[in-house]
């Protein structure tokens, strides 16, 4: 479990770096662009990220399952992955182009060409993070994503500062991703060892059997997650999308914290499943409690400081986004329960498709009802309802597949203890003095005081996963400093 923890921590930092364009550049771009221009820029990234997710179709994720299942033929799996993603991305881009042209440009209009090019470059030859997780080399992920972060943020911000033109920023990012694909192709060819590896027992079939249901589920989840943004962009315009985007600013952080743990847990669950299903499920339970320990305090702190946080980071023009951010924080309870690794570990991916269909339908219905009533806030509430439907379906499916009760599946006692600790520790945030006396710095002081109280309560209440996190933190520092000492 300690090795899993170290890999999860490093992967979390690496993936946060990979989200750098979304996390860092908006803080600066909102000061270099008007609200409308920023909304147009976010509209481009929205369409591109949706198309990229469709193009990837969870093919890269399949390395987390296929490499542990075929450890002697890892590069053969990689070659298959590269070919599958290339075919999938061409189909996805071609489909969008055909639809947009058939509707007279009503889907993406003048953004069609840049979106297609950007999505192709983003999707292809970007399997490295999954490959390094599956082969237990998380430090390489950190180095790769850190360099990529620096390049993407630098290009976006420098271009914005020099031109103040959204279209120029977009084409600069496309050029950067094209360069990354070229470099990645050279490295992949040089590193390929597939010729010396044994043939796969079921070339293509095993990976496709995993990807088809998993990719469909991933695509539906992406559509469910982004449906509200797409509707806001089309129904309310670029300015509303800008506010809505800032309100959901923390979403990549939340998903990264949760998905990094899940990405590391899945290969380990696959390995343990061969020996003992009970051990495999026990690992998932611990990861769920760890998600709660990480996410609950985030929700409490952001709920308390939402408005001053938005105004300090993005400016008063984006103050209306505070209510969206507060509504989104209510989703933290759902985000703790990632049933996907538990189902994928036993190769049961059909429920992932079913839950996302149900979630997408629920979210779509509620968007039609709530956007006319509540605008962007109504869109966020619709998202929460869709998420509740999704997690309920997955919980029911996991209970059936594992043959256990809901009480046996979910670690209610530990989850409840974490929730109680988070609620009690929130008492230190009740006073308004944090921001009135100390200004923006009071948010940092208040958050620090809250986290100290929360951690102390976890230790006093003897939550085992809290002690695990402390042990991982102690091991993580040597893990990062070892390469420096060797150098």
Structural write-up:
By secondary structure, the chain is mostly helical. The chain has one domain. The chain is 82% helix and 0% strand. α5 runs antiparallel to α6 and α13 packs antiparallel against α14. The radius of gyration is 22 Å and the shape is globular. The protein starts with a helix and ends with a helix.
Topology summary:
Blueprint: H1 2-18, H2 20-23, H3 25-32, H4 35-56, H5 63-69, H6 74-102, H7 112-123, H8 128-134, H9 138-163, H10 166-191, H11 205-236, H12 238-247, H13 251-273, H14 277-314, H15 321-329, H16 332-335, H17 340-345, H18 350-402, H19 406-409, H20 412-425, H21 433-438, H22 441-460, H23 464-486
Amino- and carboxy-terminal Cα gap: 29 Å
Overall radius of gyration: 22 Å
> What is the percentage of strand-forming residues?
under 5%
The counted number of beta strands is: 0
Class by alpha and beta content: mainly alpha
The low-confidence runs, each spanning 5 or more residues with pLDDT under 50, are 483-487
Give the integer mean of the pLDDT values. Answer: 84
Give keywords.
mainly alpha; disordered C terminus
Quick structural summary:
By secondary structure, the chain is mainly alpha-helical.
